[in-house]
Amino acid sequence: MTSPVTQTPPSFEDIKAAAGRIAGSIVRTPTMLSRTMSEIIGAEVWLKFENLQFTAAYKERGALNKLLHLTPEECRRGVVAASAGNHAQAVAYHGKRLGIPVTIVMPKSTPMVKVSQTEGHGAQVVLHGERFDDAYDHAKTLEAERGLVFVHPFDDPLVIAGAGTVALEMLEAAPNLDTLVVPIGGGGLISGIATAAKAIRPGIEVVGIEAELYPSMKNVVEGGHGAIGGDTLAEGIAVKEPGELTRRIIKDLVDRIDLVEEKHIEHAVALLVAIEKSVVEGAGAAGLAALLAHPEKYHGRKVGTVLCGGNIDTHLLANVLVRELVRRGHIARLKIAAQDRPGALAAITAKFHECDVNIIETNHHRIFTSLPAKDTVIEVECEARDAPAVDALVSRLEAAGFHVERASLD
């Protein structure tokens, strides 16, 4: 296999050829103007719903383009890939469609739901190592031992060309876009999009977005030294070592790379559910998160961003949605110090009733507290119609002589 360092980047003609090659086998997902997001951000905001692909991510485009280039002999031997997410499902799904044996190497820590989904598409899943790097190394070993074709998730001209078809569809649907905001993990998606977009509209601005905890591409392209690592909602772009081929393309074609904080990614995921009625994973919402975090950078512009995936764990999504309610002031947790005597709780709950705030849960803390032995801390989780209602409640409690502390996420 040719090293990414010596590979030739795909051309615009390669991307157009890929579009014809994969047409009919992937979903031509909608590119739609979001009127509400446009009003919030102060720009004309278009969303590309790649979360509506069959496997819920854009990865199908590049994987399929790669598989369609295999010789009959390579198809017979099969392919191997290393992935714990969207790339695994894309290769498995289209491999099964085309009758190509697929082996996917995943870290042992991969959630079983992702393992079963990948197996459900007909792939043989091999669990190896604790980290992605371990799985990747083992996949390369299997490539050599079994004569398999390795399908890289991003650092391959054919995979990049397939990803670039996203831009063709976006600019056909919204030809006046002047800015594209694209999440970056390994860099395959933005490399393909930038190649196509700059060929169609040379003056268009292409902005890459990385999670603040994983500024890998920004470091190598701009010479930064940002720390890399930590738990991020955008695990799909939590890449420690970006591509060799993709970094070359990004240096040439991407105008800048911005970072986005976790709280803004959470906010974007929640807003997409509330406003667009669409489930998008953290990595897929990173572009929109950047728009929401810094609307002044995009004011008055015609901006397109890719919702590149929708595979988010349902429990995690539930947590994100509840945390959004907390940030908006609809749910609050109050620690109320009171004397431990009859009637104290009734006096407190009366204030909740007066302010029309509903109590969800209460807990008394008498032992593990710094208060005097005759006092107690009553922790109350509550929900209200809006943040001012909680503010009014706290004011009434304090006016009645109670000391109140409010829990915060930030």
Automatic annotation (TrEMBL):
<dbReference type="GO" id="GO:0003941">
    <property type="term" value="F:L-serine ammonia-lyase activity"/>
</dbReference>
<dbReference type="InterPro" id="IPR005789">
    <property type="entry name" value="Thr_deHydtase_catblc"/>
</dbReference>
<keyword id="KW-0456">Lyase</keyword>
<dbReference type="InterPro" id="IPR001926">
    <property type="entry name" value="TrpB-like_PALP"/>
</dbReference>
<dbReference type="InterPro" id="IPR050147">
    <property type="entry name" value="Ser/Thr_Dehydratase"/>
</dbReference>
<dbReference type="GO" id="GO:0006565">
    <property type="term" value="P:L-serine catabolic process"/>
</dbReference>
<comment type="similarity">
    <text>Belongs to the serine/threonine dehydratase family.</text>
</comment>
<dbReference type="InterPro" id="IPR036052">
    <property type="entry name" value="TrpB-like_PALP_sf"/>
</dbReference>
<dbReference type="GO" id="GO:0009097">
    <property type="term" value="P:isoleucine biosynthetic process"/>
</dbReference>
<feature type="domain" description="ACT">
    <location>
        <begin position="333"/>
        <end position="410"/>
    </location>
</feature>
<dbReference type="GO" id="GO:0004794">
    <property type="term" value="F:threonine deaminase activity"/>
</dbReference>
<dbReference type="InterPro" id="IPR002912">
    <property type="entry name" value="ACT_dom"/>
</dbReference>
<dbReference type="GO" id="GO:0030170">
    <property type="term" value="F:pyridoxal phosphate binding"/>
</dbReference>
<dbReference type="GO" id="GO:0006567">
    <property type="term" value="P:L-threonine catabolic process"/>
</dbReference>
<protein>
    <submittedName>
        <fullName>Threonine ammonia-lyase</fullName>
        <ecNumber>4.3.1.19</ecNumber>
    </submittedName>
</protein>
<dbReference type="InterPro" id="IPR045865">
    <property type="entry name" value="ACT-like_dom_sf"/>
</dbReference>
<keyword id="KW-0663">Pyridoxal phosphate</keyword>
<dbReference type="Pfam" id="PF00291">
    <property type="entry name" value="PALP"/>
</dbReference>
<dbReference type="InterPro" id="IPR044561">
    <property type="entry name" value="ACT_ThrD-II-like"/>
</dbReference>
